[in-house]
Amino acid sequence: MKIRKPFTLLVVVLMLVSIFATSALANEVYTVKPGDVLWKIAEKYDITWEKLAEVNELTNPHLIYPEQKLEIPDETETVTEVEEEIAEGKKVTILGTSDVHGRIYAYEYATDSPDADAGFAKLQTLIKQEKAEAPNAILLDCGDTVQDNSAELFNDLPIHPMVQAMNTMGYDVWTLGNHEFNFDKSFLDRNIEAFNNTVLAANIYKTDDTRFVEPYKIFEKDGIRIAVVGLLPPHVPRWEASSPQHFEGLSFTQPLEEAKKVVKELEGKYDVLVGAFHIGPDGEYGSQGALEIAEAVPEFDVIFCGHAHSKFSDKEANGVKLIEPGCYGWALAKAEITLDESQDGYVVKDVTVENIETNEIEEDKEILSEFEFVHKKSVEDANIVVGHIEDDYVKNVDYITGEAKVTTMPTAQIEDTPLMDLINEVQLFYTDAQISSAAAFKNDMNLVKGDFKKKDVANIYKYSNTLMGVNITGENLKKYMEWSVSYYNTYTEGDVTVSFNPDIRGYNYDMFAGVNYDIDISKEPNNRITNLTFNGEPVKDDETYKLAVNNYRFGTLKGLELVTDEDVYYDSYETMQDAGRIRELIIKYIKEEKEGKAVPTVDNNWKIIGIDLESPYKDTVYEMIKNGDLTIPRSEDGRTPNVKSINVNELIEEGQLEENRVEELPKAS
After folding, report:
1. Nearest by Cα to 197 from 168, 177, 231
2. Of 264, 209, 257, 265, nearest to 234 (Cα)?
3. Which residue in 211, 227, 298, 423 could disulfide with 5, CB within 3.0 to 4.6 Å?
4. CATH T-level fold of 1-87
5. pTM of the model as a whole
6. Looking at the predicted structure, is the pLDDT value of residue 663 above 90?
7. What is the chain's mean pLDDT, rounded?
8. What is the pLDDT of residues 256-277, one digit of tens each?
9. Residue 344: partners with Cβ closer than 8 Å, 6 or more residues away
10. In Å, how far are 284, 514, 557, 618 from 476, measured between CA atoms?
11. What superfamily does domain 384-653 belong to in CATH?
């Protein structure tokens, strides 16, 4: 059994005292190093810890601290041979992926274009390289594997291609992610059964209080026992609230509670403890993130994270290393764990982690060959023509540069656009609702003049959500809208851009149709919605309105206690099954209701107020942004763009702008 971490009795291998350790002379004074324990020091000098404590008058032999000087009795001898044996150590390699989301080839079917840092085929090249160096390496995936990127085209197969790919690649562990529950539970059950090795999720229980899948798996490699624990967020019932059949008979517990429980179950059974979590570094909706779990359960040596689509290898909590390899196959996460032998087994000496990126890696030819049918079918499906786009829906996708790729502010999230109006129009039509809300899942999404293909629908509506119609009071509608517009940062005098809260994902910012409203971002969150009207009249708190939302947002509203199951009056999945997914409804609407013609229209029913972006420095600042002299910050994990407004007063104070003088800058090419 391993005993380690701060503030406990540590069992850590001693490093060589000095280059002179080969001499036959014993040191008279020993300086305590981080991680030392008294009995180990005593063993080094071939004396008892009781004797060492007595000589140094230690009232509590458990409490020694780094740099403390310990007197060594004269009769001691060095044990150079032991030190040399310990210095050799053993190594365990763990490899991990997460959030691959339906990608085998390095290809994005929503845009029908290659994606240089994506897919199992690229990951397999790296995995083979790493296993050539470390044949006993353990390979794990941290979930959200079988959904997205047209993967649902293959849901009726006995084994989903993503699961078959994991089998081919030799994955030892598959931790379930929340998106594994996007489909009928029979689909998940079938693919869990089809996975060749161990499926993990310690915090999912059946009605008989037994776990749905295994909580952990213990591997033995070269005599070393490695325990791998799987966890995922407990919010599947919230996110799948409209489709309880997706998690029928299952309950989800808090991950921290379950981590503590599992570690207790594992006591004495492992030398290395690894987390394979479909959980990001930070928690959500009141549950715990991986950092909080590591802080509270320091028995873990390393935690492989997922879910957040984050890219990091530099986080640590209470001595526990954390790593997350981004999403879609951006990198292969690797942990190399060095151990030394002790009287009780093996002791972890060191953990190093790194993300090995796939961008410059060639795809594995065997994977490409085996799953060529997936690629061909996905490309063919993406290019099915369903209508004609009469004109571009968003003229300036990037608000400042006008380019199709967003590098500054996304137009779709700071003003009303025909694109969001189209999605809301479809939702209003099929639910017969009065009000609708939808989010821009991709800040650069657009419909461009020309053939309207299925891939265009996937591009503007990333997820396979279904459609719900719910009754909501005017009071709760206002609360929902306030929750949504907390996405914006509060305006400060001198701002010449509008920015977003880095802690809120873009998919949690909804834009509304069927009502008129202003968003006053000079005010703090929960006090921003003004001039809210329905049919020209103020929205009334005690009146009930019919609202169209996707199934994911329905779960959010339930969690916010703004609606209940009894408020549902329409469920597209219940009515039409897979044909009731919003992507399919957009196609159906264009083909049947618009005679195949997608014509952009916008009602401009909402706008941002409480700001004055028209500084005399605005044009200068915008040119600086276009020329690359100024960069608008992104969130630390890279997922949220534009997280801080550009403020001319700050630029003047920093010396980047000269006060009272607007420079003529060269125009960006």
Report:
1. 168
2. 257
3. 298
4. Membrane-bound Lytic Murein Transglycosylase D; Chain A (3.10.350)
5. 0.67
6. no
7. 89
8. 999 999 999 999 999 999 999 9
9. 1, 3, 11
10. 22, 16, 9, 38
11. 5'-Nucleotidase, C-terminal domain (3.90.780.10)
